[in-house]
Amino acid sequence: MQTPPQGRSAIHTNIQPYSKLKIKEAIEIELARKGQVYFLHNRVETIEKTKKGLEKLLYSDLHDRHNQSISTIAAIHGRMDEKEMLGAMNDFRNKKIDVLLATTIIENGLDFPNVNTLIVEDAAKLGLAQAHQIRGRIGRGDQQAYAYFLYRSEYLTDQALERLTALQEFSELGSGYEIALRDLEIRGAGNILGREQSGAINKVGFNLYCQLLNETLEEIKKSA
User: Do residues 195 and 148 make contact, with C-beta atoms less than 8 angstroms apart?
Assistant: First the structure.
């Protein structure tokens, strides 16, 4: 499981403060080598505003490259009409779109070998495992891939910093197990008889959980 596919390279991971200049530079570098970009903005309410901001940031370069008005940035999110979303995805697959602005919907199994740059606008809000999963959406071919996890210093908590540090530390291929262990360290595992739970015990209540646990143990004893 830790052996990467032949020809696959580790994703070059950059953790740094939010910078429009860095966003512009990263996109231009990828477009210059005829690649495509994922830009992650995880707020549906402001995704269209972000799209206009990207168009303004890149307008002159994209205008010169295509000799037409901006039409190479598309936005997708989970609240879109299915037909509209599929249309955008097909255009992206067929390389009619250079930059796909999206929410975390892109973590669900997209596999486009030509997409080799990922820019996460507000990485401090992602969980460690989720960020690692999204990073795995690029670098699916034999091109060197680059992931930029940007954060705003004023909103960076100690725990978010730990997550981002781990993401940079475990950037080699096959490091999913180390990521999972570090994620467990950061979030804590909880305990079976205490209130520090994030799973089923909170849904059913502590007393009922103990009752169900006791009944199950009694059944096991009887059948032993």
Answer: no
Q: What is the 3-state secondary structure (H, E, C) of 77-145?
A: CCCCCHHHHHHHHHHHHCCCCCEEEECHHHHCCCCCCCEEEEEECCHHHCCHHHHHHHHCCCCCCCCCC
In terms of Cα–Cα distance, which of 25, 12, 29, 47 is closest to 138?
Answer: 12
| Structure token pair of residue 135 | 């990073």
Residue 132 zone, left/alpha/beta (φ > 0; ψ -120 to 50; rest): alpha
* Cβ count within 10 A of residue 11: 21
pLDDT tens per residue across span 125-166: 998 889 999 999 998 888 899 999 999 988 899 889 999 998
Tell which residue, 122, 171, 126, has the closest CA to residue 144.
171
Amino acid at 20: K
Write out pLDDT tens, residues 82-112: 999 999 999 999 999 999 999 999 987 778 9
Cα 105 to Cα 187: distance, rounded to the nearest angstrom: 23
Report CA torsion sign: 156, 159, 163, 165. Answer: positive
Q: Are 130 and 107 spatial neighbours (Cβ–Cβ below 8 Å)? A: yes
Residue given tokens 């262990």 in the structure block: 181
Rg (CA), the chain: 21
CA distance 121 to 64: 26
> How far apart are alpha carbons 217 and 96 in whole angstroms?
59
In the chain, what is the straight-line distance between the N-terminal and C-terminal CA atoms, in Å? 36
Q: Which strand (E) or helix (H) includes residue 196?
A: none
